[in-house]
């Protein structure tokens, strides 16, 4: 005889399951981080696999194998090329930093400054030997090599990431359907719709972030080149790369650019190094103001629907508490939480959370994801039937 659980039993089992999930998340943070990296890599590689699969009409398993193999070959090639050059490049960088520090000492610390009619001697503030020791203590070839070795020695987790990425690329459709199969029958269509909306958030976030990075990189590189900042094109490239960290990454680039301007001066403007550093700082602040006040709201608000100030706080908090990986994905995660929260709110107050299905499908098509739009439409029809 099949007996239903009582309400008390159901709540008790639910509490046990919830406690088990919380314990697992707490105890298996390293495993969760590895799986998160695998999911992110699979998500980024999936468009390439899908494009080749559709255009070349080759079996997906074969496409996944070749894309995965090429990606591994690229990683190994980059490692072989750049890792051996780290000690030499670090030594060269140390020598350049020593020259810059010595020049700065001669230019800025040799003359006394006057504060409230009192002269302060700066020549003994940072002797050359102290500068050398200071630079060497923070930037040494053996420390950098040791850091690289430490970050790449855990072969077990690297293997987990590689294998998990391969199988996520290979069998994600079946894994997704398997997960949907765990949902109670009446709620399976809701789960599929939530998946479509969350997928839309992630797609639009990455597309929007790519556009932002390109725009910021072009503006920064072109402006730095016109102003005569040494390494202008390199600053443009790094500004585009670090823009994924929102306000934190650009602030780092801004500080480095200002320091280079102060120490090296301009290649085109006939101004003092101090004034040039102020000009560079103002320019970088202007680019960030343009991005954060006008560009980011226009590009990101339609996807994650979160105020830029909240995004900034989330990025800084993630960097402080959970590291760079979390900071890279915190924005679409917040957007996904917003989608789930909206669904929960509508269900709590017995309202239809899918009243805007036509708008959602139109938005998905605008984002270039016809497969997800078709899935959303079919799910809506099934729930209506």
Q: Can you walk me through this structure?
A:
This protein has 385 residues and is mainly α. The protein folds into 3 domains: 34-82 and 141-182, no CATH class; 86-139, no CATH class; 184-385, no CATH class. Helices cover 79% and strands 2% of the residues. The chain is built from 15 helices and 2 strands. The chain has helices spanning 7-27, 29-56, 60-82, 86-108, 128-138, 141-152, 155-181, 188-227, 232-242, 248-264, 273-300, 308-321, 324-348, 357-366, 370-384; strands spanning 113-115, 118-120. It has a two-stranded antiparallel ribbon. α8 (188-227) runs antiparallel to α11 and α14 (357-366) packs antiparallel against α15.
Structural key phrases:
disordered C terminus; 79% helix; elongated; 385 residues; 2 strands; mainly alpha; 15 helices; 3 domains
Topology:
Layout: H1 7-27, H2 29-56, H3 60-82, H4 86-108, E1 113-115, E2 118-120, H5 128-138, H6 141-152, H7 155-181, H8 188-227, H9 232-242, H10 248-264, H11 273-300, H12 308-321, H13 324-348, H14 357-366, H15 370-384
Antiparallel strand pairs: 1-2
